[in-house]
């Protein structure tokens, strides 16, 4: 052992005639080696270091052969020769000597080489000392440092593993963290097993590396003589410090793992709230035994894993409960719709129990037909919040909204009544919603919106456009603030076009505003497949890749081309007093319907009469009007126009003067229609008329 870092000796030329007393006090012996005559003088302390009496040493280096083993002597001779050859002034080295009793002792020497004027070595003076204690302390320090470093590494891995487990939501997430090659393997373990307690048994849920599975251990009883069962029974860890101990304690398991060359193992009970939920085993092939610190670290690791597992189990239970609740609240099946292709999709945000109130629905409406162009209500909505309460509110709201629509109420009335219902539920939740009443025979779509995002339409040329429609407050808030007006927007929906309704989870992106998200969605729809099911899959896949913390509900409805208009179609529009926009939309709806239904030369007559009836209702009843258009079966094709109001007063024919304008309404109705009349309707009346129109079949 060479000490190249030895400090230079500073000794007088006549030394050791007057040795420094400090050397003696420090139990260091001195020597003076005359290279010319070969004599190697040592003082009494040096002789003591070599365990020699004065009469046993004659001053020649060869006399030290009995104390210096040959290998050590060769090494020292080589060291000194090299120092003299390369011009060094000092050298130092550790070497062993054999004492009188035959034991070996570590010794240290330092020498100072004196040279003449030509640089030739003439003399070496130096010291020797017993280095046994020094090296032992140094070795102890190195060993302690190594243990401390190993403990720091293990503690660091435990801390990193605990941090990783904090993000684990499912049991599989916990398993993945533990089997990560950058995780527990750094603790030195070569194999890992973990099992969970289930009904008096332990079910193996993780084992590694691949190929280390022991047949017959997938499910074991807790009372069987296996290590995981033992730690679950005793609630105490089991540390196995040798192969012999493993074979003795667990004779059933040992023969099956001998090929793994296990030398030690640590089995830890996984305890949460005082109850064992599982066990974990770490197996090693390069160690024997565990220090107290290592045991403490592993016990702390087991506690951390147990807490993570318990959180994961609760998370999965709550998620299953919430998903089951939500699936029960969503429609079990979407009815087939004559004249349309429909696709619906739902994506959970995967936040455990944080499953929200997004929903969709498709509602067959009165006046539809069994084939061709039926009437259908398409609903998309989102209850505020992400929890089981949101899902429960969603289910109730979906049911009542479906009931109101199926009763035949106008879109505005459906939305207003749903808002009142949500307000009266005595919940703090509100909901956004969009309801579209689609007549597939005419392609006329009446839309009401309660705080929800606009629908989109994919057109025949492949482009996609956002349909900006008027809207009211979210459901629940409108009733709270006494504002139950929901304007109805009418849009045309041609054969081959696709209507898209979705919740904001499909649109909103971190760092982007809603308009940017709508433009991105429109571009995606335009470039997507024509088939609604394929397009729905594409949109959900994109939402899945993007992630996000919101659910996604999606409804796609594509209108098929119709060979001919079908009887039984019906359109309704609510027009409030003084609402010029609603009146304009009603006129637009009538114009689109008569054109789609093929009324031929009577189109102008139908539009004129319908407009007259609406105007009369608004002028003479001080209330709102509901206009309904429908095609009837019977002798020939008939188009029926109905206008309901809240007044029970019957309309009267009045003679208008030559220059008068007022009073000609009913005369016009009587002149242009084939038949007309008045019916009492609950709190008001309905003025109706019918037109025979050309048969398009």
Write the layout of secondary structure elements.
Elements: H1 21-25, E1 28-34, E2 40-42, H2 44-49, H3 70-85, E3 90-98, E4 104-115, E5 121-130, H4 132-165, H5 171-179, E6 191-198, E7 201-208, E8 219-221, H6 227-234, E9 238-240, H7 243-249, H8 254-257, E10 264-272, E11 275-284, H9 292-329, E12 340-347, E13 357-364, E14 375-383, H10 388-406, H11 411-424, E15 431-439, E16 444-450, E17 456-458, E18 464-466, H12 477-480, E19 489-492, E20 498-502, H13 514-527, H14 532-546, E21 552-559, E22 570-575, H15 580-597, H16 603-621, E23 625-632, E24 637-645, H17 665-672, E25 675-681, E26 684-693
Antiparallel strand pairs: 1-2, 1-5, 3-4, 4-5, 6-7, 6-11, 7-8, 9-10, 10-11, 12-21, 13-14, 14-15, 15-16, 16-19, 17-18, 17-20, 20-21, 22-23, 23-24, 24-26, 25-26
Q: How many strand elements?
A: 26
Please indicate the percent range of residues in DSSP E strands (runs of 2 or more).
25-35%
Rg over alpha carbons: 47 Å
Q: With helices defined by DSSP (H or I, 4 residues minimum), what is the helix count?
A: 17
Mean pLDDT: 82
How far apart are the first and last residues' alpha carbons, in Å? 111 Å
Strand order of the largest sheet: 8-7-6-11-10-9
Task: Assign an overall shape.
Answer: elongated
In this structure, how is the largest beta sheet organized? 6 strands, antiparallel
Enumerate the spans where pLDDT stays under 50 for 5 or more consecutive residues.
4-8, 563-568
Structural class, from secondary structure content? alpha+beta
Indicate the percent of residues in helices.
25-40%
């Amino acid at each position: 052992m060479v000490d190249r870092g030895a400090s230079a000796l500073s000794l007088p030329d006549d030394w050791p005639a007057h040795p420094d007393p400090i050397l003696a006090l420090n139990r260091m012996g001195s020597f003076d080696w005359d290279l010319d005559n070969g004599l190697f003088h040592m003082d009494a302390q040096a002789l003591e270091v070599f365990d020699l009496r004065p009469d046993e040493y004659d001053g020649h280096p060869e006399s030290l052969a009995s104390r210096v083993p040959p290998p050590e002597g060769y090494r020292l001779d080589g060291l000194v020769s090299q120092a003299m050859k390369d011009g060094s002034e000092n050298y130092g080295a550790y070497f062993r000597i054999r004492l009188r009793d035959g034991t070996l002792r570590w010794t240290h020497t330092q020498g100072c080489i004196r040279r003449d004027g030509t640089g030739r070595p003439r003399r070496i003076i130096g010291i020797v000392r017993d280095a046994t204690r020094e090296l032992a302390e140094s070795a102890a320090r190195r060993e302690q440092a190594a243990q401390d470093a190993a403990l720091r590494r293990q503690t660091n891995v435990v801390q990193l593993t605990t941090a990783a487990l904090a993000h684990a939501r499912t049991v599989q997430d916990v398993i993945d963290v533990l089997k990560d090659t950058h995780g527990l393997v750094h603790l030195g373990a070569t194999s890992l097993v973990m099992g969970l307690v289930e009904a008096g048994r332990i079910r193996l849920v993780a084992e590694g590396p691949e190929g280390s599975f022991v047949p017959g251990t997938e499910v074991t009883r807790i009372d069987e003589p296996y290590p995981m069962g033992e730690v679950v029974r005793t609630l105490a860890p089991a540390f196995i410090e040798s192969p012999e101990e493993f074979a003795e304690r667990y004779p059933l398991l040992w023969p099956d793992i001998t090929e793994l060359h296990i030398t030690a193992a640590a089995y830890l009970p996984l305890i949460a709230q005082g109850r064992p939920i599982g066990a974990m085993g770490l197996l090693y092939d390069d160690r024997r035994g565990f220090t107290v610190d290592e045991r403490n670290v592993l016990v702390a690791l087991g506690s951390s894993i147990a807490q993570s597992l318990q959180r994961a189990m609760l998370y999965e239970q709550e998620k299953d409960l919430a998903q089951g609740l939500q699936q029960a609240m969503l429609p079990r099946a979407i009815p087939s719709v004559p004249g349309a292709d429909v696709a619906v999709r739902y994506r959970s945000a995967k936040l455990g129990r944080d499953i929200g109130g997004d929903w969709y629905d498709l509602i067959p409406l009165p006046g539809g037909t069994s084939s061709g162009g039926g009437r259908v209500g398409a609903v998309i909505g989102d209850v505020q919040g992400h929890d089981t309460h949101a899902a429960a509110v969603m289910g109730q709201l979906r049911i009542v909204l479906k009931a109101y629509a199926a009763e035949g109420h106008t879109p505005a009335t459906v939305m207003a009544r749903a808002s009142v219902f949500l307000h009266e539920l005595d919940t703090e939740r509100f909901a956004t919603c969009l309801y579209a009443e689609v007549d597939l025979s005419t392609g006329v779509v009446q839309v009401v919106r309660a705080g929800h995002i606009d629908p989109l339409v994919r057109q025949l040329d492949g482009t996609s456009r956002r349909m900006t429609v008027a809207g009211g407050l979210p459901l629940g808030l409108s009733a709270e603030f006494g504002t139950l007006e929901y304007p109805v927007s009418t849009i045309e929906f041609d054969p081959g076009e696709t209507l898209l309704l979705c919740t904001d989870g499909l649109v909103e992106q971190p760092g982007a505003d809603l308009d940017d998200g709508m433009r991105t969605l429109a571009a995606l729809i335009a470039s997507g497949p024509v088939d609604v099911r394929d397009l729905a899959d594409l949109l959900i896949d994109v939402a899945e890749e993007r992630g996000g913390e919101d659910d996604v509900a999606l409804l796609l409805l594509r209108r098929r081309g119709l060979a001919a208009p079908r009887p039984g179609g019906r359109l309704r529009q609510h027009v409030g007093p003084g609402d010029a926009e609603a009146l304009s939309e009603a006129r637009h709806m009538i114009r689109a319907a008569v054109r789609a239904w093929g009324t031929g030369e009577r189109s102008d007559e139908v539009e004129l009469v319908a407009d007259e009836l609406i105007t009369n209702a608004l002028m003479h009843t001080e209330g709102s009007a509901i206009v309904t258009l429908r095609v009837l079966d019977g002798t020939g094709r008939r188009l029926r126009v109905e206008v309901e109001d809240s007044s029970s007063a019957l309309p009267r024919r009045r003679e208008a003067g030559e220059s008068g304008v007022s009073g000609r309404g009913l005369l016009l109705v009587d002149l242009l229609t084939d038949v007309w009349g008045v019916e009492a309707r609950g709190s008001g009346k309905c003025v109706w008329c019918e037109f025979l129109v050309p048969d398009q079949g």
